[in-house]
Amino acid sequence: MSAALPTSSREWHLVARPHGWPEAEDFALREAAVAAPAEGRILVRNKHFSVDPYMRGRMNDVKSYTPPFKLDHPMDGGAVGEVIASNAEGFAVGDHVLHGLGWREIADMPAKHAVKVDPDVAPLSAYLGVLGMTGLTAYAGLFDVASFKEGDAVFVSGAAGAVGSQVGQMAKIKGASRVIGSAGSDEKVKLLTEEYGFDAAFNYKNGPVRDQLKEAAPDGIDVYFDNVGGDHLEAAISSFNLHGRATICGMIAQYNATEPTPGPSNMALIIGKRLRLQGMLVGDHADLQPQFVRDVAGWLSSGELKYRETEVRGIEQGYEAFMGLLRGENTGKMIVSLD
Q1: Could you tell me if 203 and 183 are in contact, meaning their C-beta atoms sit under 8 angstroms apart?
Q2: Which of 86, 114, 178, 290 is 20 to 30 A distant from 264 in Cα terms?
């Protein structure tokens, strides 16, 4: 056991359910007591935690694929940190672990819910992004759900985000004929083509998505990786070739909507084009984890796969980091790093 444990830890609580865009008063940064871990448990000092779009859905009290956050309880999410006390076999003080109790400085958890990671293989924050859940989401969504094959033309929305930027690069590595991305700023568009190797990219704020996609993909698309929904999905349906496949991963365009958002107006095209639109949750693809880590570690070491992170420092910035993510202010994975 560690000699001098901290006596308290700050943690973010959801104190009210947001209606539309979250407000600062929906959250509170509170102090909680820290005790030595019980049998089978470890204490982890978090170094980084993740903020992700799916967390907005968990702030609503609705039945979904993952339980809603409880009011006046600490929120959770991906985190990586260092073991500072252990009462569990196989875990020692100084080990680095990946776990699901983010949004707090100190996490007290059953050791079976933590996975050891090696900071010498990659920076710790990478295990929350390119080598973590977002990387696996991109990998499984492209290769398994969308049945990508060499020669496919691929369109990715939210392409400068943590998932989208990986999807486009993985498609290029595996022989896509053309990769097109959409993003929310001219700076991000430049990043996609100049650093990530996309063949074309456009700023969806500069004109109708359908028109910009048709110009960027004159021969149509075979795969669409959807992080946005709305007008992007409608544009993809319009541009699909026969037997096109879409992975529906996220719909950030409607996460903060207070009224029902209209669906694509061209759904009838799904019939004639024999399209396949499939939703995905990364938790269904855990069997791909070993293959994913092998492939991605290789692409990282060869320099074929690049990634960016947007780092916000200090636990007190947790709410602002989350709001920045929803506003699209991040490039790549949004990480909160704790001092």
Answers
A1: yes
A2: 178
User: What's phi and psi for 17, nearest 5 deg?
Assistant: -85, 120
Other Cβ atoms less than 10 A from the Cβ of 11: the count is 24
Three-state SS for 51? coil
Please answer whether residues 146 and 225 qualify as being in contact, where contact means their C-beta atoms are separated by less than 8 angstroms.
Answer: yes
Pairing of strands 96-99, 106-110: unpaired
Measured in degrees and rounded to the nearest 5, phi and psi for residue 199 equal -75, -30
CA-closest candidate to residue 103, choices 18, 4, 27: 27
What would the pLDDT profile of 262-292 be if each residue is shown by its tens digit? 779 999 999 999 999 999 999 999 999 889 9
Tokens standing for residue 264: 């694509």
Classified as helix, coil or strand, 142 is: helix
37 near 5, Cβ under 8 Å?
Answer: no
CA distance 134 to 250: 12
**Which is nearest to 104 in space by CA: 38, 55, 31, 54?**
31
Contacts of residue 286, Cβ cutoff 8 Å, sequence gap at least 6: none
> Which strands form 240-248's sheet, in the order they lie side by side?
200-203, 178-183, 153-156, 221-226, 240-248, 276-279
Q: CA 211, CA 65: separation in Å to the nearest integer? A: 34
Residue spans of beta strands (DSSP E) within the chain: 8-14, 27-33, 41-50, 79-86, 96-99, 106-110, 115-116, 153-156, 178-183, 200-203, 221-226, 240-248, 276-279, 309-313, 333-337
Query: Which among 188, 192, 179 is positioned nearest to 224, based on CA atoms?
Result: 179
Q: How far is CA 139 from the centre of its chain?
A: 12
Q: Are 310 and 277 in contact (CB under 8 A)?
A: no
